[in-house]
Amino acid sequence: MSPTPQIPQSYLSGAIFCGKLADLYGRRRIMSVTIILLIISAIGAALATNKWLFLAWRTLAGACIGANFATVVVYSTEFSPNKYRAVGPLIALMGSYTS
Fold this sequence. Notes:
By secondary structure, the protein is an all-alpha fold. The protein has helices at 7-25, 27-46, 51-78, 87-98.
């Protein structure tokens, strides 16, 4: 079983779930928590002893990436001047497709 088909689903679930949490608790706090969880999930995936643990850690990593993407785009547009607000999300989208 390959973890590849499940990764976009975890991106989506992380973006939807943490988008609401970011509205409640603040974007900076949610970004910090998801970055810490992303580091933990990367270490966990590196040390996984079987494919199910690896899949669980990769699912957590995907949810964290989706949460960060949804939070960072909104956070960056909140602090940009009005005439540049459309440029920030566009650059973030291009960066996510090229990386």
